[in-house]
Amino acid sequence: MKILVCISRTPDTTAKISFIEQNTKFNPEGVQWIINPYDEWYALVRAIELKEKDASTIIHLINIGTNENEAIIRKALALGGDEAIRVDSGIDDAYHISEQIANVAKDGYDMILTGKETIDHNGSAIGGMVAEMLDCNYISLATKLDIENGNAIVSREIEGGEERLSAPFPIVISCQKGMAEARIPNMRGIMAARTKPLKVLAASANETHTSINNFDLPPAKAGVKLIPADTPELLVKLLREEAKAI
Amino acid sequence: MSVLIITEQSDKKIKKQSLESISYGVAVSKLLNVDAIAIVLGPSDDVLSSLGEYGVKKVIHQQTIGSIFSDSRSASILLNSICDQEKAQMIIFSNSLFGKSVAPRLSVKLKAGLVTGAVKLPEISNGFSVRRSVFSGKAFADVKITTPTKIITLNANAFEINKTRGNAEVIESNIEITPSNITVIETKKNEGNISLADADKVISGGRGLKGPENWGMIEELAKLLGAATACSRPVADSNWRPHHEHVGQTGVAISPNLYIAVGISGAIQHLAGVNRSKTIVVINNDPEAPFFKAADYGIVGDAFQVMPKIIEAVKNLG
Fold first, then answer.
1. pLDDT band at B265 (very low <50, low <70, confident <90, very high)
2. Which fold has domain A2-216?
3. For chain A, which residues make up each domain, given as ranges?
4. Is the pLDDT reported for residue A160 higher than 90?
5. What is the pLDDT of residue B18?
């Protein structure tokens, strides 16, 4: 079993979001960068758990980005994974990123795992695009993943419930909560990660379909209207008459 | 040339979220001066010609759908043939589970630029750009699509349903579904009637409720308002409530019209999952709870005292 785990670099979940250069760029000042939580907690850790069950499993990590991303790639290698590939590109377009991943993934991987989305772009597009480029199955928003008799057994969220699917390899799966328990790297992992291979490849194509013009922050809330605790019926009245929400 | 709107059904009826997508798609078709066509997938109990009331000229009804809702591959092959047939220049999905799994595939097939999670009509005065939600609801981005064919998935509750009068021509379509090699082993329904993703109102409880035995008042208020129930992460992690009810950054992100949070302090990760709600109500006994900063209405008080009175007042609304 050869698994390719896609990891992305995002600002920490508590980072202050602001923009610079006439709102065309994210303001990185003072921001701590992390592995996108869905990629780390669910996709990568589940791949590591599968390797713990079957030691012959090979895990490769892939990241599309500039050399600023190497710190989080090393952290991912400290959690687990045998080697990493970084495709050197600064382009932020889902089609472009997917094309880079598909180009590496076509070399004999059985399973390509992604997080369900990144917490900065919230695009949820990469997994489906990569699967289409590879012409293989794609199961989105998976909450469980096992391997049985040469098939992937996947539970996924559906509207109002859950379904369990069986699908052959190769397959692309996007992962979310339920898949695995978050872990932190141990000292042995951190030491080992320093010497694990991190291959850098040049981007293979430059086709893009979208670009970000500018960012904007939502208007500030007008401020909370406090209702005295002894007259909560006033809340109900305001929700009906003012907010027209009930 | 046309705008194609991919609709979804629940219990053989067009979903509310799809009616929003139809209204959005019709508005986009007017901007582009082309016709809007709705695609209905699977058997339906709705009178499909009445979708004309939302402004579509034509409804394409594909009855046979195989397992396209479990297999994004056969779904995208089907939609690709309909797009070819109708010379679609724009395809609108809901940003639903189905939209998220199929739109990216279709985007590669059609070489169509994709914007997911749109919150506004496109701007076409200078190129073609669409506003979408980014940074987990903490910001917006205006994204330019540079390809001739375009795909947009629309966030729930981001666009008003616009109903007037009209009648649509209904065309029965019989495209053969590509066989799937994904097998559905089992399907489970969650308990509770209203799914979080579709809910117009959500009542959510946190650690302040002290234990799962105290959820009766959350459920009662939800039932009275026709709302879905939800919870914070610590509540799901302590198994007080099922994991699928967890809203927040790592759980479900929601954008209902009304979100009532009871006994939730409002950690930044929780806010990231709910900050796109239209009206936010916070009930918490801690006046310093960060959630009050993100709320429209708040009550600083003991949930066990306040909630029964709210339930009573809702009952008296009539």
1. very high
2. Rossmann fold (3.40.50)
3. 2-216
4. no
5. 97
Q: Which residue of A has its CA nearest to B107?
A: A129
Reported as a single tens digit per residue, the pLDDT across A24-82 is: 999 999 999 999 999 999 999 999 999 999 999 999 999 999 999 999 999 999 999 99
Report yes or no: B89 and A114 within 8 Å, Cβ to Cβ. no
Q: How far is B302 from chain A (nearest CA, A)?
A: 8
B84-129 pLDDT, tens digit each: 999 999 999 999 999 999 999 999 999 999 999 999 999 999 899 9
**Which has the closest alpha carbon to B187: B14, B76, B70?**
B70
pLDDT at position B192 is 66
User: How far is it, in rounded angstroms, from Cα A80 to Cα A60?
Assistant: 9
**Which residues of chain A does B96 touch, with a Cβ-Cβ cutoff of 8 Å?**
159
Interface test with A, best of B16, B17, B105, B243 (most A CBs within 10 A): B105
CB A42 within 8 A of CB A176: yes
Q: Where are the beta strands (DSSP E) in chain B?
A: 2-6, 9-10, 13-14, 35-41, 58-62, 88-94, 113-118, 129-134, 139-145, 150-154, 169-173, 183-189, 201-205, 228-231, 258-262, 279-284, 297-300
Q: Are B180 and B71 within 8 A, CB to CB?
A: yes
The confidence score (pLDDT) of residue A158 equals: 87
* Residues in Cβ contact with B55 at an 8 Å cutoff, skipping those fewer than 6 apart: B22, B23, B26, B29, B36, B162, B164, B166
- What are the structural domains, with CATH classification, of chain B? 2-173 (3.40.50.620), 196-315 (3.40.50.1220)
Query: What value of ipTM does the predicted structure carry?
Result: 0.95
The average pLDDT across A159-169 equals: 93
